[in-house]
Inverse folding.
């Protein structure tokens, strides 16, 4: 069973950059997530996930309570894949990745189930949103660019429109049903370890249930403990930009939830491309990895 989670946080930030570097190495985990080194309040090095589908910062209290002495003095409503749940918040922290530093940072505390989640925390995209974020899966590097002029190879990328929905980035994704193209927004989510989840409202809207060859049925749990039933099917043809992917296994969500998410595109697909994400310009550039 593929574990997945999603969060959307809304905080105000005070940003401080100290001798900012432009390249941050990452490791691609066996779970297809991007892992970078970070520290909280001058702590020892911690393993954080870089998550384009999160607009805030998180500590996994299941594993960090023994590493960090954080005071959780506030709370917030955390919107996830299953709906909204109240979570505790630690205010006034310093979060550092390499030479990038953010002070007065709010850290959401989530006790992820130890069975599935062993990371220390999550770095949401706002940590680097002032830059064009290049995710180079081939070299396993995050490269931060001040402008497009510093990206020599950008002309070899395909340019796609990006839409911010609920403070997270989406691009159009196409699936084919009875040889007819169905287009819906898919979240660019490096924090999701799977392939593609299509949520209940989208499944119902486009009548995708019982249209494809079924592989299996499964259940998964969100961060709020809600159990979601899914059907994994094989879709013969999907498209991301001009790129055709054949026989893609896709999870169709069969459980109604209150989430407004349409679909989530995860690391198993994202790692097939190198990405340049321009959050301020609402643009994505993708290039197939040969």
């Amino acid at each position: 069973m593929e574990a997945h989670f999603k969060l959307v946080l809304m905080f105000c930030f005070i940003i401080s950059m100290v001798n900012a570097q432009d390249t941050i190495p990452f490791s691609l985990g066996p779970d297809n997530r991007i892992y970078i080194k970070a520290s909280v309040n001058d702590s020892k090095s911690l393993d954080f996930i870089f998550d384009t589908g999160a607009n805030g910062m998180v500590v996994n209290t299941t594993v960090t309570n023994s590493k960090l002495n954080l005071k959780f003095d506030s709370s917030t409503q955390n919107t996830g894949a299953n709906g909204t749940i109240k979570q505790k918040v630690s205010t006034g922290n310093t979060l550092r990745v390499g030479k990038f530093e953010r002070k007065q940072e709010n850290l959401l505390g989530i006790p992820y189930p130890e069975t599935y989640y062993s990371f220390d925390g999550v770095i949401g995209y706002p940590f680097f949103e002032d830059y064009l974020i290049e995710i180079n899966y081939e070299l396993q590097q995050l490269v931060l660019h001040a402008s497009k002029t510093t990206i020599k190879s950008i002309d070899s990328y395909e340019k796609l429109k990006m839409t911010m929905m609920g403070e997270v980035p989406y691009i159009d994704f196409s699936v084919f049903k009875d040889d007819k193209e169905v287009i819906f927004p898919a979240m660019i989510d490096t924090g999701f370890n799977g392939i593609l989840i299509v949520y209940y409202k989208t499944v119902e809207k486009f009548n995708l249930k019982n249209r494809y060859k079924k592989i299996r049925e499964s259940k998964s749990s969100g961060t709020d403990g809600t159990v979601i039933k899914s059907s994994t099917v094989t879709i013969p043809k999907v498209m991301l930009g001009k790129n055709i992917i054949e026989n893609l296994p896709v999870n169709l969500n069969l459980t109604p939830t209150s989430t407004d998410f349409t679909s989530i595109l995860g690391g198993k697909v994202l790692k097939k491309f190198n990405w340049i994400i321009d959050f301020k310009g609402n643009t994505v550039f993708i290039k197939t990895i040969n």
Observations:
- The CA atoms of residues 64 and 136 lie 29 Å apart.
- The mean pLDDT is 89.
- The radius of gyration is 19 Å.
